[in-house]
Specification:
globular; alpha+beta; single chain
Amino acid sequence: MTDTEELKILSDLVAIKSVNDNEILVAKYLQKLLGEHGISSRLLEYSTTRADLFAEIGTGHPILAICGHMDVVSPGELDQWHTDPFKLTNKDGKLYGRGATDMKSGLAALVIAMINIHEHHLIKHGSIRLLATFG
C-alpha cells in the first residue's frame, strides 16, 4: 500500500459524517476496504445508523486486540471553522478535519497496519483482532 493510498483512507474516513449515532457508514467503508485486501469482517448492527465492525487476521493464540471508535463530535458552528470539517485539509504540513486527531487517524492506522501485516504474511502464530466501535 502506498502513502497516497493510506492518506486516501484517512481522507475518506474524515469525509464520512459519523457524528455520534451515525457510524454505520464508517463500518461499511472499512468492511469493504478490508474485503478488498482479503480480510473478512462482520458488522454487528445495533440500529439502522449504528454498528460495530469486527475483523481478525491470523489464527489462534495469543490474540492481540486493537480497538478504535468511529464516531466524531459534532463540528458545532460551521462558520467557526477555517476549513470544511469533513474534508481532510493540509495546511502548513498539518492535517485538519473532523476526526483527524480523534480518532479517525488512529483507526486508519490500525486498519492500514492490519492490511500490511496480512498482505506481507507477517503473523507466524496468533491473531490480531480489530474492533471498530460506535459511540
